[in-house]
Give the backbone structure.
Amino acid sequence: MGSLAIRNEAFRQTLRYTLQSAALFVVFSAVIQNRGVVAKLLSSKIMRQIGLYSYTFYLVHYTFIVLIQHLQPGISRPLLIASAFPPTLAYCWVMYGLVERPCARLRRRLVDGGGQPLEPTLDERENSVVPLGPLLKRA
């Protein structure tokens, strides 16, 4: 929190993010190691599903915010966020099903040399990591 008090613009655009990330790493590591309520919430099925959508969400959320601001000028920030979240999440769900999963299957099939591709999973017991062996052999 102390990094927010420093007003130097160069610091704010560079080192501040590094320090905040390092601090959050410590906090998240402690939460993950502890199997308390927060850890259970973060590892819930819905949070893992949102995690699968996170990159698409990152890419498109601002578009939905601008669209809603255009359709509803003067909308309050809390209402704007509440209004933008459902359509952004719906878009991410569609993109995951129509683009990301098929592309992941294709990538795995190409990397695995035509074998059975690994499917992205929400099951913690399954391993969905692609082996690097075939990639290293080609290089």
